[in-house]
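MODEL INPUT / OUTPUT PAIR
PAIR INDEX: 1
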Amino acid sequence: MILVTGGSGFIGGHVVHTLRGRERAVRCLVRDTRKAEKLRNWGCELAEGDLTDPASVRRAIADVDVVVHLVAIRQGKAEQFQRVMVDGTRNLLELAKESGAERFVHMSALGTSEVTKDLVPYFGAKWQMEQDVQRSGLPYVVFRPSFVFGPDGGILPTFRRLAKVAPVTPIIGSGRQRIQPIWADDVAAYFAKAIDHEPATNRIFELGGPDAVTWNEFWERLKRALGVRRRSVHMPMAFMRANALLTERLPGDIPLTRDLLKMLEVGDNVVTNDDAVRTFELPLMPLDDQLRRAA
């Protein structure tokens, strides 16, 4: 049995769908089973609970062989990152070890490092989670994906709407920093293979697609895929920070925050080695194909 946390999220949905497509037995920890009909329809067992509630995690993790941990938050106060991501992961690791789980597959994020851990609470939480996974004594695999693209969630649908509707395409800063988007189904394939791929054990892998492009190149490719012709305008970082200061006060999941701008400023979001490609030998979708599928 595989326990998946975060299975009702964007990436989690792709991971669960891939696991079920390979006829793996999957149990999903969800906060509300009434909102997880899609997972139930795929044949998943549902366990209602929350990472911050050890009793519910203990029930969910009974008789589990492998844990796939995908839960994270992107916005909130420092104490929320600590409670949900750091403390929640520690609960999960402790109970996984107690229950006899044999493997822990964890999703981190590209850009997470000892250098960036104090930049924003998100990176700090991701770094601490990685440290706790490595020290747990459980066999583990850690993935650090770049931007994950898909037609059904993540940031790409927002980019697509912006490219289609905005009179000009706003690009933050110079647009010369690079990104390496990876298709959601390709990320899911990595997680599914990591369940029992022995060469991956006790290693951290950076995940990116086949193409590393600047933000300028990305927007041109996206507009070409959508068949739109609008000029791009570079927005000064100072202006974007002032804008984020206002938008952060709005309710809901805000796409632009000062923390996000700090993460964008820190440098290129691209992989630094080909360890994942060589270890897993999986086909990866080129960026232009990703954009065409999302168009």
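PAIR INDEX: 2
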Amino acid sequence: MRKDFLSLNWDILLTYLQKFIRTESAKDYVSKYEPSFSLQKALILKEESNYLLNLFNSGIDIEIPNLPSIRNILDTAEKRGLLLPKELSKICLFIKFIRINRKLLVNSPFGVLVELSAPLEETFERLELIFNLETGDFSDKASYSLYLIRKKIQNLKDELFTKLEKLIEHYTKLGFLQEPIYLVKEGRYVLPVKPEFKNKIKGIVHGFSQSGATVFVEPFSIVVLTNELNELLWEEEREINRLLREITNELLREKERFTQLERELVRLDVAQARVRLGKLYNGILPEFTDSERLEIEEGVHPLLYLRALEGGGTFPVANNFYLTRALLITGPNLGGKTVSLKTIGLYVLMAYGGFLLPAKRAKIPFLQDVLVDIGDDQNLMIGESSFSAHLRNLLRIVKRANEKSLVLLDEPGRGTNPDEGSALVCAIIERLLKRGAKLVVTTHSQAIKGFLSNSEGALIGTMEFDHRTHQPTYRLLLGYWGDSHALKLAKKLGFDEEILKRAEELLENQEYYQWQKRYLEEIEKIEQMKKELSEKTRQLELEREKIRKLKEKLQEELNRAIEKIYTDWQKEFQELINKISEEKSIKKAREEFRNFLRERTIKFEEGPQFSVGERVRIGSTAREGEILAIKENIAIVACGPFKLEIPLCELKKIGQKAETVTSSKNLREKKEETSFKQEKLNLIGETVESALNILEKKINECFLRGVNRLLVIHGHGTGRLRSSIREYLSKHPLIESIEDAPPSAGGSGATLVSLAEAIKNTTY
């Protein structure tokens, strides 16, 4: 495994992944598993993980059985020339798993499993009939020879056991036996005889018990039967071996197919393990972007999280990480700088390896390599110093890095003169930035801090340190400088005040450190203000949510109230229609309808004031008219040649009074403006009963909306629908006349309905 990956604890992550692997081949694969920095492969792995994650979230789990390597089984069988029953069971279990999960696999990233296993279906179905997967035994149906052999075996056993029972009963009465049972010794049926009676039973002695208190004797009367039985058992075994050879040859012909199937099963097993591991830390799938910017929001180191989950310890602090060109992380020792650097690197490896990431959101740019320098690479066996090993690794990174590389440098320049080491590191960083590599650097060096912070596109950050408790908080504060806090850490570890005071006196630039102290205090104040603002924002969000829920509740109550009013009105309106049908009085219906409207006019707010002679528009229609008189909430409006009684709430001002005298020409123009309203109703395909119900509702709707004519389309057909509709219309109290539609509108296949004149003059 690559040293860069080991530095990021990739091998430990794979150890956790191994716990969820079910097949032997997948375990071998995972032990050497490395992320491939191929965007195409990364997207395929993401698709696999996403499919299984959706299944998990839906409560569906694909249970992969514990399987040995199928390829190894077939290789061994090929050398041996025979599959053992236990091995055959594993192969059948492999195919059975695919069959059981066919519906889940067929239209998935793992659909190849179904395609490859299709030619094996017939073989498996035949095996299911003759072979028991649980016990590894062939059934009597496996072959006719096996059936005959087993039938003879059963008959012979029945005869043998009958004789044994009689012998046991006889010798027990005589007191010859230690116990009234028979035993099997090396395939022979024997009786436990007392030593003093061993010569009383004619037979073959097959040994003594350890205490010598029992002699095992095979009576002569069952020797022949036992010999015949053992011979039949041998024939049974030979027949089973013949069947196994036939099946072995058949399966070995499909060895390459099984190899491909196992490769696909490994993909499924590993993908499912990745998702199961990710569910432990509530992971998300990353977004791959062609942007140069890497973004991780509320990310934690997965191994620290898993360790806390196992041991019940403190969970790691979540941090945001942003990287375009370079990220400089400063701060105290033991503050989390290296963990932050490793988190970024491991997230990139996990993203390209198909893992879920323990973060709220993650965007990963297109990368081709991760190069790491962390820790002490000193090699005592070849006499190499820590610094020379460090330089050798930096040289490797400089040679390999390009615009698609992520370079992680932890305390570069360590182990030598600080001034020279910092200068060398600054030159290396400059070279890497010119090549376009992305850098994450942790350091205590003021020179490296100053150089990198002045580089274009570099972002600085520090690990937070609580000055009151002298404890790191492990939070990454972006946009701030940080110090090492070496003296405070020494104080925490127990150094006495005299040493600490002398150290402060020896600082080369005490004024600088005083300014730094004030700077850190200001940072702390700013962070405290951020926390307070965040809390207030959270409280506002809670209040906003309460208001939203209250608004929804009030809206629901309003909707229920409106629905109740509408239902009540509809019921009363239907009663009115029924009454009209009974009384056949249009005049009376009109009067009751006016009362109906007048009584139910709801004033939610004060409407405009109207006066006699004012021009108004009626409702949402285009009809206009002149107010002739106003009585309570009803206005008498002249609309063309008609005088209509309209509720005031249905009128809109035009803003112009009409002339008191209207010429005959104006009347004629107004009459032309008043056009008939006509609608269509298609009843073709409806039964007579449903058609009449629909028609009744449509007539009521036309009644309310002031529609003058209705074209009812019923077609010709058998004529039953047309005659039923016309008979119904001819008796309806709201219908003035009916006639065949014009040829252009359907002729006799449709009926043109005219509403009564009184209804037209009572437009709502």
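PAIR 2 NOTE: The CA atoms of residues 381 and 389 lie 12 Å apart.
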